[in-house]
Specification:
This protein is an alpha/beta fold and about 350 residues long. The protein has twelve helices and 16 strands.
Length: about 350
């Protein structure tokens, strides 16, 4: 008979339930504002950890609504190791019709779970975290992917919502400067609003609002697609004959023939080749994945040599591990400052037998 005193259960380290805190958006912004370079470095480290296999990042789960076909809510569960060491999930909604009412399209929360007990220890406003990790990923890709072809001096933004603004902010904060900035959006009012933001940001670049997409694409060496497009709407390969670097952040703008004529770098191959992304459509068309040159982590590790005689497209699906890494960074900063808003008695049933 096993001695209870020496059983594995008895020998296990005692566990305690962590306090549960809520971190609102204002605290998230206070932590992240002005620390763009640190966030880019954190995102790059997270890509490396993920590529090394020290993570769990299952497919995202899409909640769709038959009566609201343009809307969706996405669950991104994940676990990241390395120096971050946290589990959790992002719950992010996209309701494009919000824009007509003057409120943002997307909203999100992030739950962080303790690795020892599984108990959640923080609920965080995550739209800023999500935008920051997306922008940091784009800025990192712009840096690494332009190293063999020279830094672009003309950038074009195709779609000008929150994500576009954050990407510009992160590029400026990581020492990018441009001679020309092009802007195009289906909403002329949004395009003018983004132009106003750019001019207030202090940029020395000439800012041009374009009447059509072809003008924007042909006049830009670095393109940022940040739309809410559900299916490809850019089809003409000749628009890209000048071989620009394309940050295909919104994933579904480019027709398969454009990706097939380009060099392609993804953040995660399995994630990008699903959910009807442009890259997924290419795989369905050609029946293989040979059109993928590698991942951004492969580029960082020097495992991929990229051609400079074709357009270069970066398609980041957006990994939950990035949200966790940035979220844990915010949590640690807020906790370290003594400003955590702990919810006392959040967990009430803590005794097994009452």
């Amino acid at each position: 008979m096993t001695d209870p005193a020496t059983s594995p259960v008895a020998a296990a380290e005692p566990k305690t339930v962590p306090p549960f805190a809520v971190i609102p958006g204002v605290q998230v912004q206070q932590v992240l504002q002005g620390r763009e370079k640190e966030v880019v470095e954190l995102v790059e480290q997270t890509y490396r950890v993920h590529a090394a296999g020290d993570s769990v990042n299952p497919p995202s789960y899409f909640l769709r609504f038959p009566d609201r076909p343009t809307s969706r809510i996405i669950a991104l569960p994940a676990s990241i190791g390395g120096h971050v060491g946290v589990d959790g999930i992002k719950w992010v909604s996209s309701f494009p019709d919000n824009v007509a009412s003057g409120i943002p399209r997307a909203s999100a929360v992030l739950i962080l779970n303790d690795r020892a007990t599984g108990y959640p220890f923080a609920c965080m406003e995550c739209s800023v975290i999500s935008a920051s990790r997306t922008a940091a990923s784009a800025a990192s890709a712009a840096d690494w992917l332009s190293r063999g072809r020279g830094r672009p001096r003309r950038i074009g933004f195709f779609g000008v919502g929150l994500i576009a603004r954050y990407i510009h902010t992160f590029l400026a904060a990581t020492d990018w400067s441009f001679d020309e900035i092009g802007v195009y959006d289906l909403s002329g009012e949004s395009a003018e609003g983004f132009k106003g933001y750019l001019e207030r940001s202090g940029t020395a670049a000439r800012v041009t609002v374009h009447d059509g997409p072809e003008q924007l694409v042909r006049s830009s060496d670095l393109l940022v697609f940040a739309t809410v497009a559900a299916q490809p709407h850019v089809h003409d390969v000749t628009w890209f004959s000048h071989n620009p670097l394309v940050l295909h952040v919104s994933l579904r703008d480019l027709a398969p023939e454009i990706l097939m004529a380009s060099a392609n770098v993804l953040d995660d191959v399995d994630h990008c080749l699903r959910a009807g992304t442009s890259a997924h459509l290419v795989e369905q068309t050609v029946g293989h994945r040979d059109f993928v040159d590698g991942t951004l982590a492969d580029v960082m590790e020097g495992k991929v040599a990229l051609a400079d005689d074709r357009p270069l497209v970066f398609s980041p699906f957006g990994l939950g591990v990035l949200d966790l890494a940035v979220g844990k960074y915010v949590y640690d900063e807020v906790a370290g400052s003594g400003r955590l808003r702990v919810i006392e008695d959040f967990f009430s049933e803590l005794r097994r037998y009452g």
